[in-house]
Specification:
The chain is an alpha/beta fold. The protein has helices spanning 47-62, 71-87, 89-100, 104-127, 162-176, 190-202, 216-223, 237-250, 272-283, 304-316, 336-352, 386-389, 405-413, 428-437, 470-475, and strands at 8-10, 13-15, 18-20, 27-31, 38-43, 132-136, 142-149, 152-156, 179-183, 209-211, 230-234, 253-257, 262-266, 294-300, 355-360, 374-379, 396-402, 417-418, 421-424, 444-445, 460-461, 464-465, 478-484. The protein contains 15 helices and 23 strands. Helix 6 (190-202) links the parallel strand 9 and strand 10. The longest helix is centred in the N-terminal third of the chain and has 24 residues, at 104-127. InterPro entries: Ald_DH/histidinol_DH (IPR016161), Ald_DH_C (IPR016163), Ald_DH_CS_GLU (IPR029510), Ald_DH_N (IPR016162), Aldehyde_DH_dom (IPR015590).
Length: 492
């Protein structure tokens, strides 16, 4: 494919409400994980471009109208953006399929329709938010409590669920009255630049949103920029530690949504088929490249073989192949390097003594190129094994036996991560008791976590801190100001 046949070519950056030439000659070539051929090329921001974007956001916040408009005006602007987004859902899904290898059916449903619906839900939350309230004081006078925008937000988004994660960062910031510099991952700049087109058409004031695709070294400059008031980051735990350290130097507020190794606990009365279905739908649409995927399946030891067979059957039935085919259920991994690393984990699991039930390192049947890994299930996994402890970020499931419910909870909690998890049982009350004992930020009973926009999402431990979605996600973009007023003194 030559440059004139590329699906998407953009030689400008969206900075300060305008399409601007980059300061240097860097370009990002986007390669299809399915064909291993280029599908697009975009300009890459360099350090001076980041400075320009932050300066534009700073002016828009310090001097522009956006933070000073009423919440209803900002809500109206977000609803205009949502309407435009809805008109371009097919184009957005096709870009995500091309750049990431997400199956088109999954791209339409989860990568595009979900963030589109989130826009409306978040606008509804903002409409009922207590932007200013009066609280009785303890000393005979009331206190006014105001929620005011935190300032310039740097939104740094990974490649795996780019539009969903962009919406959960950018839209609450806009509703709060903040200005935003969005930095998409180099693997997924195409959808971000289409969103920039929609922002421009929605008529947001100049500088309120800038979109600057960049490599990771330039991203570090954005994170450490003294003109940024908050960093909202989603990515690996290792990168999150670096982001937190950089923010600490400037006392920049930061929220981190990081990795996960979520457990699905099957109690002794659970249905293996239901558990297998939940595991399948929790992450296989993106070939296991989902931070809250259920990758540890904790099962009663006496039924371990039954559960391993059920999970293996569910994953083996997945139709793997061309992501542009509407019948495809799982596509490739995002890059050759990710394919290599996942294969290394699979080989390591075999060396450590885990039993391979299905999958492995060979390409799926009928696939001759592309960065594919077959859905893989291990059984006989000890909780201390690497495949049970590290985030593989691929279609690899570890079935881990336990003796009793207390041990199941101990194994679930014996993890560096704490993002999500689930419990499966015929007794919902019993499931809720287990949910209360597992230390995670989110949890599902008889399902994977539902990502309800009304509820905050985020993790604990090495899965990060801070919350997105719900009123709490909006509050993450707001500062609290308390105002006390001296009682009026009657004239003498």
């Amino acid at each position: 494919m030559n440059e004139h046949e590329a699906l998407f070519v953009r030689e400008a950056l969206f900075i300060g409400g305008e399409w601007a030439a980059p300061s240097g000659g860097r370009r990002i070539e986007v390669v299809s994980p399915h064909t291993e051929e280029p599908v697009g090329r975009v300009a890459a921001a360099d350090v001076p471009d980041i400075d320009r974007a932050v300066a534009a956001a700073r002016r828009a916040f310090d001097e522009g109208p956006w933070p000073r408009t009423g919440p209803s005006e900002r809500i109206g602007a977000v609803r205009r953006l949502a309407a435009l987004y809805g008109e371009h859902r097919d184009a957005m899904a096709e870009l995500i399929t091309a750049e990431l290898g997400a199956p088109i059916s999954f791209a339409r449903r989860a990568q595009v329709a979900l963030p589109w619906s989130m826009m409306g839900a978040l606008a509804d939350i903002a409409a009922g938010h207590p932007w200013e309230e009066t609280r009785p004081g303890r000393y005979g006078q009331d206190v006014i409590l105001r929620r005011e925008p935190v300032g310039v937000v740097a939104a740094i988004v990974p490649w795996n669920m780019p539009q969903f994660l962009t919406v959960t960062k950018v839209v609450p910031a806009l509703l709060a009255g903040c200005t935003v510099v969005l930095k998409p991952a180099p693997e997924s700049p195409l959808d971000a630049l289409l969103l920039a087109d929609l922002v421009e058409r929605a008529g947001l004031p100049p500088g309120v949103v800038s979109v600057v695709p960049a490599d990771r070294d330039v991203s570090a400059h954005l994170v450490a920029h003294p003109g940024v008031d908050k960093v909202s980051f989603t990515g690996s735990t290792a990168a999150g530690r670096q982001v937190a350290a950089a923010c600490a130097a400037n006392l920049t507020r930061v929220s981190l949504e990081l990795g996960g190794k979520s457990a699905a606990i099957a109690l002794d009365d659970a249905d293996p088929a239901a558990v297998a279905t939940a595991v399948r739908f929790s992450g296989m649409g993106m070939a296991g490249q989902i931070c809250n995927a259920l990758t540890r399946v904790l099962v009663p030891a006496r039924r371990a073989g039954e559960y391993a067979e059920a999970v293996a059957a569910a994953l083996s039935a997945l139709r793997v192949g061309d992501p542009a085919d509407p019948e495809t259920e799982m596509g490739p991994l995002v890059s050759r390097d990710r394919q290599r690393r996942v294969r290394e984990y699979i080989d390591g699991g075999v060396r450590d003594g885990a039993r391979l039930v299905t999958g492995g390192t060979a390409l799926p049947e009928g696939v001759e190129r592309g960065w594919y890994v077959r859905p893989t299930v291990f059984t006989g996994v000890d909780p201390a094994m690497t495949v049970a402890r590290e985030e593989i970020f691929g279609p690899v499931i570890a079935v881990i036996p336990y003796r009793d419910e207390d041990e199941a909870v101990r194994i679930a909690n014996d993890s560096d991560y704490g993002l999500a998890g689930s419990v499966f049982t015929a007794d919902t009350g019993r499931g809720l008791d287990v949910a209360r004992r597992v230390r995670t930020g989110t949890f599902g009973v008889n399902q994977g976590y539902s990502m309800d926009p009304a509820a905050p999402f985020g993790g604990v431990k090495a899965s990060g801190y801070g919350r997105e979605l719900g009123p709490e996600g909006l509050d993450g973009c707001l500062d609290l100001k308390s105002i006390s007023i001296a009682p009026e003194v009657p004239p003498a």
